[in-house]
């Protein structure tokens, strides 16, 4: 089974900052990696699929990169509406698995 | 517009049975799968399983196999998640989500639309 880990678990940044969230897989998953945003009290929302493909309607300040075991979600020009939790998910093999999540807050 | 509408919050006692639903609309039901995801209070997301409607294939996470049952009624575009005997540790938010791919062999397991969630509380 593929295990996923994320870091940091929590980050606080200022409006306009660039923030990066890292996701690591326990084995190579090629680019079968998806990112979701979850705002407080809401369901997750797909941001990026297959490591770097921006989902339709998602702002271009969200950028995904990486392959193999190491992946990064970058949020450029952080906005107040970006507050929430971010989850990575591997879609390489079942059982599917998610990272532990990263909570993003505005300073 | 793609929509997944889940049934309402439930409060149950340990040992009770429960079946929650996820009604899909706005797309061809059998062209996609439905996955279920658990979120314990204040925790991350856990994949429970996935159901494919074209061939009725169901895949469970080992962590949930034997603990829950997935099913679907194609005539009403609805997927279900059920328990035969709830435990207090089942208290969580449960989400259904549409997954890309109509069969296990061509599934991409990208969950592009989600239901609003069903909160299940199990307490004596």
Detailed description of the structure:
The complex is a heterodimer of chains A (107) and B (124). Chain A has 107 residues and is mostly beta strands. Chain A has strands at residues 4-7, 10-13, 19-25, 33-38, 45-49, 53-54, 62-67, 70-75, 84-90, 97-98, 102-106. In chain A, the strands form two sheets. In chain A, strands 2, 4, 5, 6, 9, 10 and 11 form a seven-stranded mixed β-sheet that branches. A four-stranded antiparallel β-sheet of chain A has the order 1-3-8-7, with no helix packed on it. In chain A, a hairpin with a 3-residue loop joins strand 5 (45-49) and strand 6 (53-54). Chain A starts with a strand and ends with a strand. With 124 residues, chain B is an all-beta fold. In chain B, strands 2, 4, 5, 6, 9, 10 and 11 form a seven-stranded mixed β-sheet that branches. Chain B starts with a strand and ends with a strand. The interface between A and B is medium-sized, with 23 and 23 residues.
The Rg value of chain A, from CA coordinates, equals 13 Å
Largest beta sheet of chain A, briefly? 7 strands, mixed
> What portion of residues of chain A is helical?
under 10%
Query: What's the N-to-C terminus distance of chain B?
Result: 40 Å
Could you tell me the number of beta strands of chain A? Answer: 11
Q: Termini separation of chain A (Å)?
A: 37 Å
Fraction of residues in helix of chain B: under 10%
Task: Write the H/E string of chain A, N to C.
Answer: EEEEEEEEEEE
Rounded mean pLDDT of chain B is 95
Pairing-aware structural class of the strands and helices of chain B?
A: mainly beta
Total helical elements of chain B: 0
Output the radius of gyration of chain B.
Answer: 14 Å
Q: Write down the overall mean pLDDT of chain A.
A: 97
Q: Segments of chain A where pLDDT lies below 50 for 5+ residues? A: none
Class from helix and strand fractions of chain A: mainly beta
Shape of chain B: globular
In N-to-C order, the SSE pattern of chain B is: EEEEEEEEEEE
Shape of chain A: globular
Strand content of chain B: over 45%
